[in-house]
TrEMBL record:
Span of domain HIT: 7-114
Protein name: HIT family protein
Span of the annotated motif Histidine triad motif: 99-103
Alphabetical list of InterPro entries matching this protein: HINT, Histidine_triad_CS, Histidine_triad_HIT, HIT-like, HIT-like_sf
Active-site residues, Swiss-Prot/TrEMBL: H101
Amino acid sequence: MKKDDCIFCKIANGEIPSKTLYEDERFRVILDLGPATRGHALVLPKEHFANLYELPEEWCREAFALAGRMAGRMTERLSCDGFNLLQNNGEVAGQTVFHFHIHMIPRYYGDGQIIGGKQGKADQEELEAVRRIICEGEEQGRGTL
Ligand code: 5GP
Ligand code: ZN
């Protein structure tokens, strides 16, 4: 289903023009208007899902498979040296458009981009405490999901 007041629904379905790199029945891949690096693209489903939690698994598989294929083509054509795939969920995580999308950010040596924040250093006790919270009631994380 499309959402009337959603800009990415309109872009994905062609009601608002975009620099489209690829399109099929379910997805459109466009260039980001505020690129982090040259070739920064977004994979958009044509149906409205606000975020990863709402995205059905089949769409999820297809979206990431498509991103993988696009990364291959873009690497060839742009001669980039690597790729970051980024997918934000929730305002706190940096999501500003509440229609699921995957950022495809080509990386070039010397591009100076910093993706992701600083990381700390946890000890085994902290890791175990977090593991227990996430896996409580599961046997060594092997339960059903
Ligand atoms: P988010 O912050 O939600 O993960 O990412 C939203 C992205 O959409 C941003 O990188 C922003 O530059 C891009 N963006 C927002 N509005 C438009 C638009 O109208 N057209 C295009 N091509 N990109 C957009
Ligand atoms: Zn939408």
